[in-house]
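Working notes for the structural subgroup meeting. M.R. asked for a predicted model of this chain before we commit to crystallization trials. I am recording the input and output together here so anyone reviewing the notebook later can reproduce the run.

Input as submitted:
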Amino acid sequence: MDFKNVDLNDYFFNLELHKSMFFFDMLKDTYEFTLKGDEIEIFKKLKSGISEPITRKELIYSIQVEMTKEYNYSSLDKETLRSVARAGNLTQYCGVFRGFRNPSKIKSEKGKLNAHQNNVKLLIIMFYHLFDGVDNIHKAIDNMIYLEKYLNKKEESSDEEEEDEESSDEEEQVGPQNSHSVQELEEQISQLKAQQERKGTLKGKQRRF
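Returned structure, recorded in token form:
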């Protein structure tokens, strides 16, 4: 899940499309959702840099079984989960989520770390509150057909980030190449000077004879 770039304050969870946006944003580091006609295709991102198509059944199993273990969902405070459940559609306005803070606005490193750790917990709680049922996950995916502009914008921003990384890599490679070519030119110039000096001395000797 993406715990660094998702802010709970960017969504209104009483709105269905905002739930789909949150679902997409939380999973975008691991999964891709592309719109093909009126269907949503799902791809899992692999470490090799490529993506492979997966089914909804596989995604749902990952969310409800594998990811709950990975993020230690069972360790979350039960009373907190009950408070969130009682809040219903107004969950984000209950006291539990008032502690969500932007770490970049905190000065101390310890404060930033504490805020991030707390945010991770709150994002997990919100995610599994909204998508605790299989039908809720299906609905979030189905409603993505109304988010064509949102999906395209997200894809463009991710493409720009990849291009920036590639350009920075190219710049790093260009630097050493330039310095290397300068050294070669200097060597060629010194060789030419040496050749000219040799020719000059030979001419002088010929004149003496």
